[in-house]
Amino acid sequence: MPIPLVIDTDTAQDDCVAILAGLLTPEADLRGITMVAGNVGFDRQVKNAFMTFNVAAKQVPMYLGSRLPLVRPWESAENVHGDGAGGLDMDFSGFEPEAEHAVDALLRMADEAAGELNVVAIGPLTNIALAVRKRPEFASQVKHLVVMGGSNNARGNITAAAEFNFYVDPEAAKIVFDAGFNVTVVPWAPLTLKQAVFGRDVLDRIAQIETPLAHFFTSVCSATLAFDESVGIPGTTHPDSLSVAVLLRPELVTKSAQYNVDIETGSELTRGYAAMSWGVHGLAANATVIEEIDADGFRDFLLDMLGQTTQPPREFTVAGSKI
Ligand SMILES: [Ca+2]
C-alpha cells in the first residue's frame, strides 16, 4: 500500500532532496507540500520547490503557509544555504501554488485520509502548530509526524544550544511537542552529523551519475558543502531527506528510544534548545527519537533515487546561462 504523506518544508538544499524522495520513491503517495518560513526568503523557497518538481518531471499541489514564525521575527539560514539551489533558475510561468492556505490544506488532507495521513515536517514548526491550534484533534488525526529538529543532548548548529528549525520558531515547536502527536524526531546531532553526511567520496559518485536528478542534487547542495567544510563538517548534511526516508523505509532505523522532548522559549541564550530527557527524570515520553540508522542503506536509498531518469519540462539556467 502506498504511504500517504505531506511534506512541510522551508525549501532549500536538502529540503529539495527530501521532496524528490517524496515524489519519486515508489511506496510514497505524496499528497502535497506545505511551505513555511525558514531557510531562505519565502518566495525563493517556493521557486526552489517548483524547480524540484521540474527536475522530477512530477508535480503535486503546493500550499503556502506561514510567512513568519508565530511571535518572533524571521531569521534566515542564507549564510548556510545561499539561495538554497546553487544559483539555479528557470522560467516559472505556469507554475502556481494552490489558493488554499497550508494550514487549511493540512486539516483537509487529514480529514480525507481518515487517520492514514503522515506529515514530515522539515522546517520550523509554525504551520503544524497553527494547524493544531486551529483544530486540536489534528494531532490525533495524523498517523505519524516525523520532525527534523533539535539535537539529542549534543551541539546545536545556529547556536551552541539550538538547531535551526526549533530556534526560528521555538513557540511553535513547544506547541507541537505538547499536542499529543505520534511523533518521531530526526535530530541534528549526533545522528545527522554522524550518519547523514555525504563526504566528497559519495558526492563524487553522485557527480558521475548522468541524470538530471543527480546534476540537480549537485547544484542544490553546492553552497551548503562550502559552508559545512568551513565549519568542520566533512560533507553535505541530509537530515530532511533522512526524515522522509525513515517514514518510507522504517527498516533504516536501527536504534530509537522514547524521550520527553520540550523546547526552551524563555531564555535568549538557549532559545530553541530541545531538552531530550531519556526516561530517567520522571517525565512522560512524548516522542520517539532516532538514535542510529543504517547509514549505508540511507545513502543507497538516495543514490538509487538520483539514478532515475526523468525528463524535466523546463531547462535550468545559472546566472542566465543554460546548463
Ligand atoms: Ca528544511
UniProtKB/TrEMBL annotation:
Pfam families assigned to the protein according to its UniProt record, in alphabetical order: IU_nuc_hydro (PF01156)
Gene Ontology biological-process entries: purine nucleoside catabolic process
Listed transmembrane segments: none
GO cellular component terms attached to this protein's record: cytosol
One GO MF term attached to the UniProt entry: purine nucleosidase activity
Keywords for the protein's UniProt record, in alphabetical order: Glycosidase, Hydrolase
Domain of life: Bacteria
Inosine/uridine-preferring nucleoside hydrolase domain sequence ranges: 5-299
Name this protein carries in UniProt: Nucleoside hydrolase
Organism: Kineosporia babensis
